Amino acid sequence: MTRECNDDFTKLKGYILDYRISYNLDNNSYMVSAKRMHKVYFSLVNWHAEYQHQIDFFSKKYTNNKDILLRVSEAISDIGSSNFNWLNGSYKASRVMLRSSIENFVRAISSIDDEVQLTEKNVYKLFDRAHGSNIFNSSVHVNKLYKELHHRYKELCEDTHTASYKNMDKVTSLVDYPKYVEEKSITTENIFIIIAKNILVILCLIFNDLYHKMHHRNRENIINSVQSNYKPLILFSNLCN
After folding, report:
1. Alpha-carbon gap, residue 192 to 159, rounded angstroms
2. Measuring CA to CA, which of 34, 63, 109, 153 is 20 to 30 A from 125?
3. pLDDT of 24-69, one tens digit each?
4. What is the distance between the alpha carbons of residues 12 and 159, in angstroms, rounded to a whole number?
5. Which three-class secondary structure state does DSSP give residue 178?
6. CA dist., res. 38 & res. 20, Å (int)
7. 61 φ, ψ to 5°?
8. What is the pLDDT of residue 78?
9. Nearest in space to 72 (alpha carbons), one of 129, 27, 110, 34
C-alpha cells in the first residue's frame, strides 16, 4: 500500500468505530417508517419460522424440491436485507434487494408448477411463464397480487440500471453514511410495504393449509399485516375446502 492508501484506510477504521444510526431515532418520520416496515417484515419472519418448522408438511403437500425450498427462504432474506439497508440510509441498495426478492419469489413459486423456471436465465421469459402458470392463476386475488409484483419489479429495474437521475444515490464519500433522507426514505418505505405485503398474502393464500397448521400466535402475528380485504380469504378459505 502507498502512504496515502494507508492513511485513507486509517480514516476508514475511524469511520467504522464511530458508525452509528441511533440519532435517527430522534426523527419522528424515521420512527414512523421504521415501525411500519418492521410490522410487515415481522409477519414475514413469523411465516418463515413456521415454514421451516413445518417443512416436512410443506414438502409433502406442495413440493420437496430443495432448490425451490431454499429460494423461498432467499426471497424473504432479501426483504430482510432491504430493511437493513433502509435503516442505514442506503435507499438504492434497499430497492435493489426488493427487486431481487421479487425475482426469487416468482422463480420459486412458479417452479412448483414448472421446474424449468429454476434455471430460466431470461427474466422476461421468467415472468411470462409465471404469468401463465397455474399457481399464479389459482385465484383472481393471487393473479392480481402477482401482477402488482411484476409492475413493481419493472419499476425497481430502473434503480438497478440507473435509468435516470432520480435512481442515483449520489454518494460522494463515506461521511454521507449513515444519512437519513426523508423523501427517499418514504418512497422506499412505501414500495417495501407493498411488496412485502403482497408476498405475504400470496404465501398465505397459496399455502393456506400450511397457514392453518401454524401456532395460533404466529397466525395472529402474520394476519396482523394482511390488508383487511384479504383477511377473510386467508382465515376462512381452509374451512370451505
Report:
1. 14
2. 63
3. 999 999 999 999 999 999 999 999 999 999 999 999 999 999 999 9
4. 27
5. coil
6. 19
7. -80, -40
8. 98
9. 110
Query: How far apart are alpha carbons 178 and 22 in whole angstroms?
Result: 10
For the chain, the first-to-last Cα distance in angstroms comes to 68
Q: Residue 239 carries which side chain, given as an amino acid letter?
A: L
Cα(217)–Cα(50) distance, integer angstroms: 11
Residue 225 sits at φ, ψ, to 5 deg, of -105, 0
Q: Which of 146, 218, 159 is nearest to 188 (CA)?
A: 159
Find all residues with CB under 8 Å of 192, minimum gap 6, and list them.
37, 40, 79, 82, 83, 86, 94, 98
Q: Tens of pLDDT along 193-233?
A: 999 999 999 999 999 999 999 999 999 999 999 999 999 99
Sorting pLDDT into bands at 50, 70 and 90, what band is 160?
Answer: low
Instruction: Give me the pLDDT at residue 16, please.
Output: 87
Q: Can you give the length of the chain in residues?
A: 241
- CA separation, residue 86 to residues 98, 116, 125, 223 (Å): 11, 34, 30, 24
| pTM for this prediction | 0.91
For residue 241, with 0-12 CB atoms within 10 Å meaning exposed, 13-18 middle and 19 or more buried, which class applies?
Answer: exposed
* Cell digits of residue 45: 419472519
Question: d(Cα 188, Cα 214) in Å, to the nearest integer?
Answer: 31
